[in-house]
Design brief:
Elements: H1 3-11, H2 30-33, H3 35-39, H4 45-51, E1 58-60, E2 73-77, E3 81-85, E4 91-95, E5 104-107, H5 113-123, H6 135-141, E6 152-155, H7 161-167, H8 169-178, H9 180-201, E7 209-213, E8 217-218, E9 221-222, H10 226-246, E10 252-255, H11 264-270, E11 274-276, H12 286-293, E12 298-303, H13 305-308, H14 312-328, E13 331-335, H15 345-358
Parallel strand pairs: 1-6, 6-7, 7-10, 10-11, 11-12, 12-13
Antiparallel strand pairs: 2-3, 3-4, 4-5, 8-9
Helix pairs in contact: 7-8, 8-9, 9-10, 10-11, 14-15
């Protein structure tokens, strides 16, 4: 089977020659800590995917966010920390030790409706030249129709996750209650930007799936209320899903970390029927959600990264629990986020070999 045939069969609960083989990527430290990467000049995910001969999966999309973004400017720094303004207009404090970590966000440029009105006018103009999609260039990169041998997706952006980025975790929690109309206008604004891009892209390509990004959950559940998500976010998903369905796209995943279970009914009702990369420790074993939602749901990811760093016995025990899920279909196993550097490279290679051994020919 081609990569495209394999992906579509597996995600539609049909028989495949083997499981689709992919991974989500690596922490930046892995590219220096792992000898196989350093010795082979591998410095990014694309190079790593070719190095491991993973199945190919691609996506295209439009410019759905600020354009232009805020200028990235260093505000102050000392020997240990740097404070800078990022492209979302946030003041962020980061350590200067070179290790991957989430910045400490200190202040947002958008707090009140007046702030948003200014940023919307200056940075969310739907007619900005940077939002024009070069369809011919994309067609030169990806065959638009049936002759393509790998799955190609259309990216559907973020209805609330990027807004969280702009407002900060605390900021969006306050804004939903203090300025609900402002937040809904933000959601509507980004939804319209995605709709504009879909209107251009969908007629031009035979897409295999749609993708999205939210990251609005943590180990305690969603950072926005379920009511807000249902009443404000889900209706925008429905609008996008109508466009996708009109062009035959019936697989739509979103990248949302944390415990997504409170939002699952509304993801599904809105049209998002696949989770990616499905963090285990912050949520549950993939089998739990499959038991609840059956073949209405698909999952991509769900291999507990903690087990990858706990030795080969733990790797084996965990992968064995996934064999029935891969056989039933609708599930593509890979690390449930970017693989951290505490995983020894020898054990990571062992994990990749075991995936091939365990998830060979599958018959749902």
């Amino acid at each position: 089977m081609t990569d495209r045939e394999r992906f579509n069969a597996q995600m539609h609960y049909k028989e495949t020659d083997r499981s689709f083989n992919m991974e989500f990527g690596y922490w930046s430290e892995n590219y220096t800590v792992w000898k196989m990467f350093a010795d082979n000049g591998i410095k990014g995910e694309g190079q790593a995917n070719k190095f491991f001969s993973f199945d190919r999966i691609e996506s295209v999309g439009g410019n759905y966010w600020m354009s232009p973004g805020f200028p990235e400017t260093v505000i102050s720094e000392n020997k240990e920390y740097k404070i800078y303004q990022n492209s979302d207009g946030l003041l962020a404090e980061v350590k200067k030790d070179g290790k991957s970590s989430i910045p400490h966000y200190m202040k947002s440029s958008v707090v009140t409706p007046d702030d948003w009105a200014k940023v919307k006018k200056e940075r969310f103009n739907p007619k900005d030249e940077s939002r024009k999609i070069n369809v011919e260039l994309l067609k030169a990169m990806h065959s638009p129709r049936g002759e393509r041998d790998y799955p190609l997706g259309v990216h559907c952006g973020s209805m609330i996750g990027k807004i969280r980025d702009m407002l900060t975790f605390e900021g969006i929690c306050y804004a939903i209650y203090d300025y609900p109309d402002m937040v809904e206008d933000m959601v509507e604004t980004v939804c319209m930007l995605v709709e504009n891009a879909l209107d251009v892209l969908l007629p031009q390509f035979d897409f295999d799936y749609a993708s999205g990004w939210e990251d609005i959950c943590y180990n305690g559940g969603p950072i926005v209320s379920v009511g807000f998500f249902k009443d404000v976010v889900m209706p925008r998903y429905k609008r996008l899903n109508k466009k996708l369905k009109n062009f035959g796209i019936d697989i739509w995943y979103t990248d949302c970390d944390g415990d997504v279970r409170p939002l699952m009914p509304y993801f599904l009702e809105g049209g998002i029927n696949s989770l990616f990369p499905f963090e285990v420790n912050s949520c549950a074993h993939p089998a739990e959600l499959f038991a609840t939602y059956g073949k209405e749901l698909r999952i991509m990811g769900g291999v507990d990264k903690m087990k990858l760093g706990a030795g080969r016995n733990e790797i084996d025990k965990y992968l064995e629990t996934l064999v029935p899920l891969v056989k039933r279909g609708g599930y593509i196993p890979f690390c449930d986020h970017r693989c951290p550097p505490n995983v020894p490279e020898e054990d990571y290679l062992y994990y990749l070999d075991r995936k091939k051994e365990l998830f060979g020919k599958i018959s749902p």
